[in-house]
Structures are given as C-alpha cells and as structure tokens.
Amino acid sequence: MRTPSRERWHYFVGVDLGKRRDYTAVVVVEQSVTVFPGERDWVTYECRREQMHWVRFVERMPRGLPYTAVVGRLGRILRSPELAGRCTVVMDATGVGEAVVDLARAEQAERPHWAFVPVTITGAGKAHAEGRQWRVPKQDLMEGLVVMLERGSLRIPGRLRGRQTLLEELRQARVKVSASGRRQYGAWGPGEHDDLTMALALACWRADTRAAATVPP
Predict the structure, then answer these.
(1) Read out DSSP for the chain?
(2) Which residue range(s) make up the domain with 177?
(3) For 40, phi and psi rounded to 5 degrees?
(4) Distance between CA atoms of 46 and 59, rounded to whole angstroms?
(5) What is the pLDDT of residues 19-48, one digit of tens each?
(6) String of b and e for 28-44 (b: at least 16 CB within 10 Å)?
(7) Quick check: 198 and 185 in contact, CB under 8 A?
(8) pLDDT per residue over 40-92, tens digit each?
(9) How far apart are CA 23 and CA 19, in angstroms?
(10) Are 91 and 117 in contact (CB under 8 A)?
(11) Which CATH number characterizes residue 50's domain?
(12) What is the C-alpha separation between 197 and 80, in angstroms, rounded?
C-alpha cells in the first residue's frame, strides 16, 4: 500500500467583531487534506481523502478596542509566515456597517496575500452570496461546527493557548426554541460569551464549503 500524502493545506481565520462592550475574537483553523492512493472511496471509486481541521490560534482582543486597532491587529496576525499566501479571513460583518468591512478590504489591498469573506449572520433562510458578501443563518454555522466535532474532523490541541476558554464557551453553547419553533443559538446567562465559538464556527463553515467546492475528485 502506498504511503498517504498530504495534498494541500489552508488556513481559515474566523473573526467575530465585538459590538461596543463585547470582545473581538480571532480563531485560526488549519485545514489539511491527506490522500490515500491505495484506497478507494466506495461511492465515487476515487482515491480516499481525509480532511482534518486543527485549531492553531485563539485570541480575544481587549474590550472597547476601536475597529481601526482591531483591523491593525488582524493584519499583524495575518503577516505570520505560516499564513502568508494560504489563508482566508471570514469576518462577521453583522451590524458593524460597511466602514469596518472597508477597513479590512483596505488592509487586504495593501498586503494581498489573503482572501476575505465578510459574512452577515441571519436568523433564517439559506446561505447565499450577495455580491462580495455572504448571508449565512446562525443555525448553519453552529450545526456545521457540531458536525465537525462529532465526526472528529476538528481537533483542539491540548497545548493551545486559550484552549480552556474556548472549551468553556463550547460547553456553554445552547439552543433555545421559541414558541413559534424558531431556534436561537448562543451562550445564555449573565457574564457568558460566545465570541470565540462564533469565530470558530465562521472559520469551519468556510473551510467546509470551500472544500466541497474546490477539492478535485
């Protein structure tokens, strides 16, 4: 049997922008695709591929940080040699206005070594692109994250800085069903946050949709 080979890897940077008193969170997820030349997929009969995701970086920025400083810090993170030329930024653009998205685009234009995907998180509907932005239901983001965790394709290394905070947020994540049957996802209760969870969910959503669209058979 031939030795499996790592076909490619890419980084997805989820950014949950803080609103007023909230934190801005950044989570970097590495996606790798390993090909097993001697094994066949029983459905497609192509070489079996295994897609894995690893959380590589977790950061909460200080509360109340101006968006100019947030984008500046993000730019410094993206200038890391590991990310240069192979990363996609997935930013929650819900309710922050075009000005913040424009700041991010200006940073990208100055150093065009990363792709940029702004996302407006909605309460219902289907995920779809509107021009250069996406509209994605929160349910899609959260359920996609749960699926990755359950099938073991998303790993959070034991020595990762910020791991415990991220795990605590994931444990606090809840779903509420309203009287009309609408599902609401979040961390419920005083002092609880879901910024890291949302940043992770954004990165994983794009990793999964991008892989489905671009990984050759």
Answers:
(1) -PPPEEEEEEEEEEEE---TTSPEEEEEEEEEEEEEEEEE-TTT-SEEEEEEEEEEEEEEEPTT--HHHHHHHHHHHHTSTTTTTSEEEEEE-TTT-HHHHHHHHHHHHHS--SEEEEEEEESSS--EEETTEEEEEHHHHHHHHHHHHHHT-EE--TT-TTHHHHHHHHHHEEEEE-TTS-EEEEE-STT---HHHHHHHHHHHHHHHHHHHHS--
(2) 5-214
(3) -115, 145
(4) 39
(5) 767 789 999 999 988 776 666 665 665 666
(6) bbbbebebbeeeeeeee
(7) no
(8) 665 665 666 778 999 999 999 998 888 899 999 999 999 888 888 889 999 99
(9) 7
(10) yes
(11) 3.30.420.240
(12) 23
d(CA 117, CA 92): 9
Number of domains in the chain: 1
